[in-house]
């Protein structure tokens, strides 16, 4: 999915094209997109393709098309201090943009199936923190990534203000995804080949909006452990939240 806007010469050119095509519609989302060079999440030998409105995959490493990420960022309706989980967090590109908006008191979790992709995401995150001018211009909510299957979040885990799933969700898993949300929260996911925005407006009530047609690889189903019980994913707190909790305990 992609190719909806013209190719750019650099990151700013790409963002200009996404704005012109009305994929980026808010100043907040525009600032986040301009702050992070998409090419920094490509392997060096593929950087020439970074500013095309196309998805990219190399082995397990995957980036969705810029027009998809634009629609996702707009639909999430982000603001500082929210809690967010990225199911299938991949390279960390989206999670890092989200972190620029959430600020220092947000929560920014990611779950990714592949260990090599987690390692790649942390390399990209470290590079952003150490080398990007944007890191000094924003109050950043640093993402925390863990390896696991996003259908194995333990039921006692927190609910989130915002949830994004970067894989096609089968209809039978729709309720599982919804239950990750707090009341008032927003879930964005590919559901039945439509990028779908679901808002939890009450304990048992939801508002659903179809955004655009998409084609995503389906969610990988969980594998059971040897004793027949499903595994669970241990979600980490962000460094700041660990520090604040220590201060409270002291």
From TrEMBL:
Broad class of the protein's primary localization: cytoplasm
Q: Which GO terms describe its cellular component?
A: cytoplasm
**Keyword tags:** Cytoplasm
Pfam families tied to this protein: PCMT
Entry keyword Transmembrane helix: no
Q: Which InterPro entries match?
A: PCMT (IPR000682), SAM-dependent_MTases_sf (IPR029063)
CDD domains xref list: AdoMet_MTases
Q: Which domain of life is it from?
A: Eukaryota
* Example of a GO MF term: protein-L-isoaspartate (D-aspartate) O-methyltransferase activity
- Cytoplasm as a keyword of this entry, yes or no, is yes
Cellular location(s): Cytoplasm
Identify its protein family.
Answer: Belongs to the methyltransferase superfamily. L-isoaspartyl/D-aspartyl protein methyltransferase family.
Q: What is this protein called?
A: Protein-L-isoaspartate O-methyltransferase domain-containing protein 2-like
This chain's source organism reads Notothenia coriiceps (black rockcod)
